[in-house]
User: Fold these one by one.
Assistant:
Number 1:
Amino acid sequence: MMNAKELVSVYDTIMSIPGMNDPIKIDLKISRRNVLLLSQAINKALSSEASADSVNLIDICSPESKEELTTFSNECLLKSGLNELNDRLSKL
């Protein structure tokens, strides 16, 4: 198993591959249930604290990437009409 420093180096190398910052268009058709689950997964990943013993890709991504994920999640919720429901669920 690689240590945290080695993992960061590998992840950084992967994220530096040419074309990784190029925008792509995705035609996505998923159920409202999965939009809600995807939104919850994104929010949970972005709000969790980085662990000292394990490093995940989300832990080392840039603040801009995290903001893009949040925006994507919010847009999916708006398009599916689940923004209000998601807000209510987050208050539970």
Number 2:
Amino acid sequence: MYNAVHGRESGRLRNQPSQKPTTKHTTPNGQTRHRCLRKKISPQSDREENVTVTGLHQYTPLPDSASSIRLLRLLPGSRQQDIECMLYVTELTAAVDQYEALSYVWGDALPTTPIQVNGGTLQIGLNLRTALLNLRLINQPRILWFDAICINQQDFDEKPGQINTMGQIYRSALRCVVWLGNAHLSKPNDVPQRDTKKAFDVLKMLGDDAAEMKRMGKKVEPHKGDLYKKLRADMNIEHALFENEWWRRGWTAQEIIVAKRAFMAWIWILLRGPSTCSGSASQQSRPSLKKVQRIRDLAATTTINPADELLGYLIRTRTRDATDLRDKIFGVLGFSGGRLNDVGIVPNYRSTVGEVYQDAATRIITVSGNFNVLGLCTQVETPTAPRGPSWVPDWSSQSAIALPLVDDALGQLRKTNASRGSPLVSWWEEDGNVLVAQGHVVDVVSRLAPVQRQFDIIEGVPYDVEDTVDKPKFWEVIGEFLDSMDIFCQTLCTGTLMPGGREETEKAFQDWLATLSTIRKLMAMKADKKASKAFKTASFLGYTKKTWQSYGDFIPYLSQVKERRLGGTAKEYLCLFPRNTEPDDQVYILSGGRVPVVLRPRRDGTVEFIGEAYVHGIMDGEAFKPEDCTDVRIR
């Protein structure tokens, strides 16, 4: 195989074809003819479409979809020649380190463009053609694996086995080539291309600096040097790299994490993976560069229970795109070297999106022995997937959701347990559509404040509530908590304490409240409601961004307020409720549940799952009574 680093052949694969592709086409009467469609093209232009078009390429079945794979031999050629390939079958165990795995975005399904595979024409997406055009070598073949061609996408019997093997395919590759290209940009002088080239130049220099620091035994801190300042100052560089669609695709997370090494390529540019990672890992202060950190967090995700581990991956890849919405689940099964197979989810592309999501939720609950997956359930209608049972997360939705409460405000597993560590008791009825749990009612929702949106936290939660709700109702909701502020503080940070304990947390809370007085004065300058709204969306947001650092250490502890609403219960508990909570909804504690949940009674005797709740005073089992538990049928 051709080694892209050293420019030489590094070995041949077993059963590797040696014949050249043919453009022969057999007619119905058995005659062999050449059939070519030709266009006039400039000798200097990139070949954007094959001139030669023949009969369609036909796949042959794999001997074993779980152990056999197809590899693509990209034949050498210039940028002005047709793309020709040879596709052949080999055993995965015989191909270790003998191919490169391509990670890229499929792009739009239409239009397509033809290439030649084993002498037949195969239609592929424009982005894939651009990748092949730029990855092809002049005088040496290149061995690649990528799902669009190496898996027969029309064979629903083959796909599940290949999908289950994808993690091992990327682990067995010599390297993973990350293609960030855009099929519609082919001119070197295009501004986006110049920005991307500049970005890669800067990142490579950062990586080289980091490697040199490490070699000299120094602390690797490239973010403190002049090169990092250059990256911070040039938003075009940041946009060119981190707004690329590759960061939003679901499959790419698995592909880059399980690979041993990674190339990042964009129009004639190849960048060594190790230097990229070394240089950018320390640059976590930039919002866009946090996308890199999220990938690293995924790689570090590991728990004792494979179902909890799978849930962690699903949470961290929730906002990534998928052409096929079933791949929101199937696309993460290759993490952890096959460990996730123990959850029992088998890719089945004959199942509907709703069936795949429901099966995943069922398996996660069964194998994990907890209800943590319920924290991802939102009652927001999405046109992309049919509404399923309320206890099944809709993974197709990319809208803002509240962070699950099974973790604390800093993302660590919550130390308290509302059901006192009781075992999970659950089963399913009505063809798996009704989840039956054991639990009991604790309280009833009586008062609600508005939903806290993303920027409400920046503006200040107390002010937003006071400004939006009439004074009497506001005092009903938070009652005496404005006197001591202790319970109010604990509710906003969902019981998450700073290292110094309650005293340090309350001090940070008071400091944060003090900064809000300036904001209140600014808002008071606009007496007219209409003008106030315009002021908030323009001048105010600019002001808050510039003074972000002045908000103190309490801001991270407000992370679970977003997309929830303050509220009160009939027994005078102060709570953070799910956004869709309504008066008379019921607060339950389920056996095996770590946090209270809000359920809504239905006429048929079942209940609808609304979401998790923080209820100050009962988060560590204070209100849980095992003897009161009965069947709770959640539809």
Number 3:
Amino acid sequence: MAMRVRKVRLCILSAVLSLTASAPATSQDVACVVTDPTGTPLNVRTEPNGRIVTSLTNGSKVRRVEERRYAGKGWALVSSDTGELGWVFSAYLDCVSVGGDRWKSAPMHPRPPAN
């Protein structure tokens, strides 16, 4: 019985570790600047494509907290300096990770390179 419990625990641990290793890195500390080419303020929403709660002007600095795809488009959950959270269309963000990697219009799910 103890051996069986041990095997079950090992299987569960393996499954959790494999999910963690394959999950996309969304908790990276990423600084972003609003770069809306239309020149109009970028709407900040309650959820992807949700109700507009405020807006950000070009040049506004935010932190990207999470990324998500909705209806085939990229959305980013951003945080202001005061800690307020909201969703924006990610194509209008220019982001830099703490490690110095740059993304223009930060892709949600980059495609693997073609071999």
Number 4:
Amino acid sequence: MDELRTPDFPVRWVLITIVAGFVLVGAVVGVITLTYGGARPSSFPQPSDLGAPRLETEPVANHEAWLARQRALLSGAEGRTPITEAMEAIAARGAEAYAPLPAEGGAQ
């Protein structure tokens, strides 16, 4: 029990492989550092003045106008169709119920 066992694989080759891997990684990092080090500019351009932000002059009035337009669309004929009428319209189309709808201009 006190005797040392010899490994079943060559330890020397494993160590050589590990050291060679580190040397290879170091060489690649060195080549990349030397090659791409000159690709960076020595100084970056100063940022240009973008000017003042363009803010809405009347955001509340603009929002209220948009909200009124949206409510007008919803209260129109297409926005308030009861579900029973909508389902009847789909059922009336029969087998063509899931076919593409015609374009708004009437052309297909």
